[in-house]
Amino acid sequence: IDESCNKLSILCVKKPLKRLKLPGLGIDAVKSYFEDDSLETLDADMFLRFAADKTIQMEKANKAFQLIDEAQKGVVVVEDLKRVCTELGEDLTEEELIEMVEWADTGSSSGEGLLRPKHFFRIAHKSNL
């Protein structure tokens, strides 16, 4: 942070976001949020607006996870998604649900096909909920 002008270099944004428990967000997420690929610095208001919006997304993602994880297993599996789709009247095939789980689980070291809260945040962030 440059104290003289109260700006945060976009190159340094990842560390404070990690401290705020906003995993996986970095330069590209900030530039996309502000729709400015040439963005190099953030003032305090910009950073706080971005962090607040992403915190709200995290809370919504956690709430969605808890609703879908009815048995409180700590993970969501395809069967959970099938149940929710049926309850909501959504007509998704098992193959589509498996594809959704695989997409959300991309980057996981295990690739076990289980969705955890961080995956729901990834979906919320990607779809800008």
Q: Care to describe what's here?
A:
There is one protein chain. The chain is mostly helical and 129 residues long. 55% of the residues lie in helices and 5% in strands. It has helices at 14-19, 27-33, 44-68, 78-88, 94-104, 117-127; strands spanning 7-9, 41-43. α3 crosses α6 (117-127). The protein is elongated, with a radius of gyration of 17 Å. The two termini are 29 Å apart.
Summarize the structure.
The chain is mostly helical and 129 residues long.
Instruction: Label the overall shape.
Output: elongated
Q: Which structural class should the secondary elements be placed in?
A: mainly alpha
Terminal Cα separation, in Å?
29 Å
Largest sheet: number of strands, sense, barrel closure: 2 strands, antiparallel
Main β-sheet, spatial strand arrangement: 1-2
Percent strand: under 5%
Helix content: 55-70%
| Uncertain spans | none
Provide the residue-averaged pLDDT. Answer: 85
Helix and strand pattern: EHHEHHHH
**Gyration radius, rounded:** 17 Å
Q: Care to count the β-strands? A: 2
Tally of alpha and pi helices:
6
